[in-house]
Design goal:
Elements lengths: L4 E2 L2 E2 L7 H25 L5 H21 L7 H32 L10 H26 L4 H38 L3 H5 L4 H28 L9 H21 L3 H7 L2 E6 L2 E6 L4 E5 L1
Antiparallel strand pairs: 1-2, 3-4, 4-5
Helix pairs in contact: 1-2, 1-8, 2-3, 3-4, 3-5, 3-7, 3-9, 4-5, 5-7, 7-8
Length: 291
């Protein structure tokens, strides 16, 4: 079924760029393939949501490339896929980020420094993340319906989901900063003796959190402006403030892979160092290079 408009509602306010879509198809394919390899080798299971998010980004931009070849007679299927999957992918990245902080606190024996008890920390943030995910997914589904009113309602629901995501992410960054300050002021004995470079892990969490927060604020402004707004009418902003930022998030997790934390939790295991793997041997954290 081919539709350019639905009761006056256009799928796109421009002709989607094939070149831009292909660039990010390649980028997300490469980084997601490497993350798949790293996850399988290191068995860092709590990173699965982020991996799924990478596939969502890749598939979403594949669908966008399909749409670019259909201008101006865009079909519904590719439009739904490119609207939905890149929209909700950051919520999946967020789930892994929340779980990583909880595990870092456990590894450092530092629950006393956490603003929220560890048993509740991951549950609270992931619950907010799931709620945000469901609202954004449901709103995107409504936007693909065949009426202007449903599309408008869908946009409002997505806006609510993004507000929840921003609030929880803001609180998460504050919680991380408080934990960081308390650890600097009064480090746990284990953090001093184990050799864990926990500050490096913290700074990666800050970095990816800020990137996702900026992206969510961009998306929020986009949906607040509405279907005739400036941001939704100019494709370049989507690639600069969404696609590029999420690609950088995935790159940062290549540089400081969560497998290091996973290995500390298990008192041993493979740690990914890009294309190399090192084995963490025992609770003392000695690293030995392996194939």
């Amino acid at each position: 079924m081919e539709l350019t408009t639905r009761s006056g509602f256009e799928y796109y306010r421009y002709d989607p760029s094939l070149a831009a879509a292909v660039i990010f198809i390649i980028c997300f394919l490469l980084t997601t393939a490497l993350h798949t390899f790293q996850l399988i080798r290191t068995k860092t299971l709590f990173f699965i949501p982020s991996l799924v998010g990478g596939y969502f980004e890749w598939i979403g931009y594949c669908a966008r490339a399909v749409s670019s070849n259909q201008s101006p007679n865009w079909t519904l299927g590719p439009y739904i896929v490119q609207s939905l999957l890149p929209l909700v992918a950051p919520a999946l990245f967020a789930a892994s980020i929340y779980m990583e902080l909880g595990r870092l606190i456990v590894v450092l024996h530092a629950e006393k420094h956490s603003l929220i008890r560890v048993k509740w920390l991951t549950k609270i943030f992931v619950t907010g993340d799931v709620l945000s995910f469901l609202l954004q997914a449901g709103g995107a589904g409504l936007m693909a319906s065949h009426s202007q009113s449903s599309a408008t309602n869908g946009s409002h629901i997505i806006t609510g989901g993004l507000v929840i995501q921003i609030l929880f992410f803001g609180f998460f960054i504050i919680s991380t900063a408080i934990f960081h300050h308390r650890m600097d002021s009064s480090p746990t004995p284990y953090s001093l003796s184990s050799g864990i470079d926990w500050r490096r892990l913290i700074w990666v969490l800050y970095s990816v959190s800020v990137l996702i927060l900026v992206r969510s604020i961009y998306r929020l402004i986009e949906y607040i402006q509405g279907f005739s707004g400036y941001l939704i009418s100019h494709e370049a902003y989507l690639y600069v403030f969404d696609a590029l930022l999420m690609f950088v998030v995935m790159l940062l997790f290549h540089v400081v892979h969560p497998s290091e934390l996973n290995a500390w939790l298990k008192s041993g295991g493979l740690v990914s160092k890009g294309f190399r793997f090192e084995r963490l041997q025992g609770a003392t954290g000695n690293l030995a290079e392996t194939a």
